[in-house]
């Protein structure tokens, strides 16, 4: 059974999920999931491929609309009537495949949404963008185009671009997949900075070391359900379920 069987969202939580389900025809991607995330928490979602991890976080900004259950962010219920522009200004998502605009420079990729959505003056948007580009060690590439960058460099630009909207919640889908160890350390630092600023982060990853280092809590999923929600020290040393033990054994041996 999923944790927290209550049916009403917690109004004090930054994210509150109750019996959330998502179906693709006959396939159940999310199966009655329930949990809460407090403000400033860093949550890492782990699980095998196809377990529903990415689908879960994509429901939070309605890239994937859920089919049933209740999803509340900062006390606001997210549903078909939600203003998506406002929601996605509040909930940022760093995609696994970057999704940068190829015809725009790095700097313009970062400043486009703040200028169009938040009406931030260009000079202010560029100043903010350069600050975040420096944080992810890519500022020297500001005038280049995505095709001129490596995969790891494009991932760092995607992180900076999401941060430029100054969201209350940040969602990361495999943010370290193309990064070297030094760059991964930079992402850890950014996430810690976000938490200190009160920004809530949820991260899907296959990097066990990264998950252990960054998470306040681990959510472990399999077949669309949550099997464990535990602190990382407990999850990595004494997982509660056999499925989690098998998963960790496989990841470590790999």
UniProtKB/TrEMBL annotation:
Coiled-coil boundaries: none
Keyword RNA-binding attached: no
PROSITE patterns: ABC_TRANSPORTER_1, ABC_TRANSPORTER_2
Family matches, as CDD domains: ABC_HisP_GlnQ
Gene3D superfamilies: P-loop containing nucleotide triphosphate hydrolases
Domain ABC transporter stretches: 15-248
InterPro entries: AAA+_ATPase, ABC_ATPase_HisP-typ, ABC_transporter-like_ATP-bd, ABC_transporter-like_CS, MetN_ABC_transporter-like, P-loop_NTPase
SMART domains per record: AAA
GO molecular function: ABC-type amino acid transporter activity; ATP binding; ATP hydrolysis activity
Pfam families in alphabetical order: ABC_tran (PF00005)
Keywords in alphabetical order: ATP-binding, Nucleotide-binding, Transport
Family label: Belongs to the ABC transporter superfamily.
UniProt-recorded name of the protein: Glutamine transport ATP-binding protein GlnQ
Organism of provenance: Komagataeibacter europaeus (Gluconacetobacter europaeus)
Gene transcribed to yield this protein: glnQ
């Amino acid at each position: 059974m999923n944790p927290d069987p209550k049916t009403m969202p917690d109004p004090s939580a930054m994210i509150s999920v109750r019996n959330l389900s998502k179906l693709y025809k006959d396939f159940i991607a999310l199966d009655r999931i329930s949990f809460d995330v407090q403000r400033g928490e860093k949550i890492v979602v782990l699980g095998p491929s196809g377990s529903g991890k990415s689908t879960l976080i994509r429901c939070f900004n309605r890239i994937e609309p859920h089919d049933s259950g209740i999803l509340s962010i900062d006390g606001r219920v997210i549903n078909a009537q939600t203003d998506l522009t406002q929601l996605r200004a509040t909930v940022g998502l760093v995609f696994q495949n970057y999704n940068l605009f190829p015809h725009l420079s790095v700097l313009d990729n970062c400043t486009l949404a703040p200028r169009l959505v938040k009406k931030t003056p260009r000079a202010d948007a560029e100043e903010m963008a350069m600050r975040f580009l420096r944080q992810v060690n890519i500022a020297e590439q500001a005038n280049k185009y995505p095709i001129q960058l490596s995969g790891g460099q494009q991932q760092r630009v995607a992180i900076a671009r999401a941060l430029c909207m100054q969201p209350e919640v940040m969602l990361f889908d495999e943010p370290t997949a193309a990064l070297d160890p030094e760059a991964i350390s930079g992402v850890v630092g950014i996430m810690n900075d976000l938490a200190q600023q009160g920004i809530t982060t949820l991260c899907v990853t296959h990097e066990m070391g990264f998950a252990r280092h960054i998470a306040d809590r681990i959510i472990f999923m399999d077949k669309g359900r949550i099997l464990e929600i535990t602190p990382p020290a407990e999850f990595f040393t004494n997982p509660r379920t056999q499925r989690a033990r098998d998963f960790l054994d496989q990841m470590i041996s790999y």
